[in-house]
Amino acid sequence: MALWGGRFSGETRSEVAKYSESISFDQRLYKHDIMGSIAHVTMLAKQGIIPEASAEAIRTELKNILGRIEKGDFTYDIALEDIHMHIESALIGVLGDEGARVHSGRSRNDQVALDVRLYLRDAASEIIDGIREMQRALVLKASEHPRQIMPGFTHLQHAQVVLFAHHMLAYVEMFDRDAARLADCRKRFNVSPLGSGAIAGSTLALDREFVAELLNFDGVTRNSMDAVADRDFMIEFLSALAIFGVHCSRLSEDLILWCGQEFDFIELDDAFCTGSSLMPQKKNPDVCELTRGKTARFTGALNALLTMCKGLPLTYNRDLQEDKVALFDAIDTAMQILAVYPPMVATMTLKGANMEKAASDPALMATDLAEALVGLGVPFRTAHHRVGSLVKYCKEKGKQLDEISLEEMRITIPEATEEFPRMFDPRASVAKRNLTGGTGFDAVASQLKFWQEKLK
């Protein structure tokens, strides 16, 4: 009979057992469940709720169970529903009534809330470490090509000349915010809910703060009802992962475009591409495309939890069992991305000549002309209009901006000086943008130095 079966006179139908089990996915919580139980019985003995000898026997057997699970010598049975009942049942199977003391002052409601918080602490740290590796790969690739120019894009149209390194460092900034968000939300879920019981706490003299200290929490939850019903910390965690996923998808899209023949700016290593089953000439950026697709799983997980919690009354409801399916999938997806992306970026080859050629379009320096006019005292909107008129003039004459004489330029820009026709050097354009955060050579070198130091 199930550990909760005392009130029932009949057995659970086999179909219901299959429908209601969670051991198929929550078994990954075994280490954290055992960790929480060891801390709990240690507190129970300290408070005189159970004998110290019982606590010691339980701790010893919990460690044995941990070893069995890690060796693969542990049997799972859907009749026991979840990882908590599996471990408790195994404990009682060896220790009998002494093992049954483990659940004193505890409910599966506060137990699962504890286990997931412990699990997320480790997951957050692992994902943050992976994000740092992603950043290092981007910084390394940028540092290998610190003076490589390329066209920057707005509306997917050539806009202005930028450095390739500047483009890479834009993603380093995005991923840094992702790491910061995960670290920040970790602060909010690093509080212990254990001792909240099913809803109302316990009549036993539990020392919740002692358990929190043993488990390296920053404190305890303040309201027992909120503690067992709260899934905000999961939603916030998934929100941070969803934003991370958006950044991965945007990077993927850039790389996919740059691989295409129309851009031809980079080549990805064969190890991260596949071919076509029909067209022998194809080399497809599958890792990028899969990443762009897989990131939809983050937003799906976030929406699943938001929808699940939207109409739930306080406190715990069985609906919440499904929260871990989405959560675990999102974590696994993040770790998969972080396993393949750093080496893919590290082995990416730049086609510098193609980037240089695309960046040499004189139209990319049109803004330089407008800002030069501003430097001569012309109001920016007037300068913008005059340079726009020059572009129109060149288009009508079938000429590039750098193919007209000073006299022709003065037709639309009467203030043009002898320097104006020489403003179409893309490297000179980049070199002038050395303000903080700009794409100038010195500014980007400063950015690189900053990130190299931060990511040591």
Characterize the biggest β-sheet: 2 strands, antiparallel
DSSP summary, beta strand count? 4
Could you report the average pLDDT, rounded to the nearest whole number? 95
Strands side by side in the biggest sheet: 1-2
Shape: elongated
* CATH topology value of the largest domain: Fumarase C, Chain A, domain 2
Beta-strand percentage range: under 5%
Strands, helices and their partners?
Elements: H1 14-20, H2 23-26, H3 30-46, H4 52-71, H5 83-95, H6 97-100, H7 108-144, E1 149-154, E2 157-163, H8 164-189, H9 208-214, H10 224-229, H11 232-259, E3 266-267, H12 286-294, H13 296-310, H14 323-346, E4 349-350, H15 352-359, H16 366-375, H17 380-397, H18 406-412, H19 426-431, H20 441-454
Antiparallel strand pairs: 1-2, 3-4
What does this structure look like?
The protein is mainly alpha-helical and 456 residues long. The strands form 2 sheets. It has a two-stranded antiparallel sheet. A two-stranded antiparallel sheet has the order 3-4. The chain starts with 13 loop residues before the first helix and ends with a helix.
Features:
456 residues; mainly alpha; Fumarase C, Chain B, domain 1; Fumarase C, Chain A, domain 2; Ribonucleotide Reductase Protein R1, domain 1; two-stranded antiparallel ribbon; two-stranded antiparallel sheet; 4% strand
Quick structural overview:
This protein is mainly alpha-helical. It has 20 helices and four strands.
